[in-house]
Write a structure and sequence with these properties.
8-stranded antiparallel beta sheet, Immunoglobulin-like, mainly beta, 2 domains, Jelly Rolls, binds calcium ion
């Protein structure tokens, strides 16, 4: 049996309509500020600066003749194509047998030092087709906050293995877009391109000469990430000891929904705080029973 019969509601509203039992409140949807816009634009401009790489590790040591003993070749700003004299000395590489599917893939894990927002990763890879240095087939990118658990593996296949008429040894870039991924560690897991390789029964080289990360410090983006102002309402109504109350809300004065549980009056005013961030307007009423 419904304790709040329509007749009781009508009686209550009629008798105390202009007091506290029903509040009609028009609610603005959201408040925008110029300060928010300024923060957003400020954050976007930060993307131009590369993120600092603290260190990186290889899952599989590079080949002896194209090594990276100080683990600096991928972050020193030098590339084969950027050098006055293109040289294999700028590259770090692995030789792989495309016909052996069990051969371990080279993976490189970069440590950005702390959690950062990552918007773009630019991988510079080296091509020297006449020497068997070819584009990888794909790179699988995964992310971690602690260097242990890696999540969100995405595969990118945009490597371009076509030759360059201007040079026999050159580097080329692949840009991948993680869409503002937050991470401290990024792992690039390279897969060989045996199927498309014209010499697919021979071992092929995969060489890399630079990897850069673009994004933003998370601290710089707290304004964009968390600054929102939404409206809410605070209702208050008096209660009588032993009387039971039920707050209801409606957007059209036709359909009413209970807000929270029934309240047992204690003689003190009762306060209720309600978020209204998803609603243009809302009406409230309090039902009671004897
Ligand atoms: Ca380099």
């Amino acid at each position: 049996m419904d304790a709040f019969a329509p007749a009781e509601v009508a009686l209550m509203v009629e008798s105390q309509q202009k007091k506290k039992d029903m509040a009609r409140i028009n609610i603005p949807r959201k408040i925008s500020t110029l300060a928010l816009a300024a923060l957003t634009f400020g954050a976007l401009s930060l993307q131009a600066d590369p993120l600092v790489v603290l260190s990186y590790e290889y899952s599989k040591p590079p080949a002896e003749n194209y090594p990276d003993p100080d683990r600096s070749k991928l972050t020193d700003g030098q590339t084969v194509s950027g050098a006055e004299e293109p040289s294999v000395d700028y590259a770090v590489g692995w030789i792989e047998n495309p016909t052996n599917p069990d051969e371990p893939h080279p993976a490189i894990t970069f440590d950005l030092g702390e959690m950062k927002y990552i918007d773009e990763i630019v991988i510079s890879y080296v091509l020297w087709p006449s020497a068997g240095v070819r584009a990888p087939k794909e790179v699988r990118v995964s992310y971690s906050y602690d260097g242990e658990a890696f999540l969100m593996e995405d595969a990118y296949t945009g490597f371009d293995g076509s030759e360059d008429p201007e040079a026999s040894l050159f580097s080329r870039e692949l840009s991948v877009d993680p869409d503002r991924q937050a991470a401290r560690f990024v792992r690039l897991d390279f897969r060989q391109g045996g199927e498309e390789d014209p010499n697919e029964n021979r071992s092929v080289w995969h060489w890399f000469d630079e990897v850069t990360f673009h994004g933003a410090e998370i601290d710089d983006l707290t304004g964009e990430a968390s600054s929102r102002i939404y409206t809410a309402v605070e209702l208050e109504f008096p209660t009588e000891v032993g009387r039971i109350y039920q707050v209801q809300g409606s957007q059209d004065l036709e359909e009413w929904e209970d807000i929270g549980d029934k309240i047992l009056g204690n003689g003190e005013p009762y306060q209720l705080f309600q978020s209204t961030r998803t609603e243009d307007r809302k009406f409230f009423r309090v039902l009671t029973e004897e």
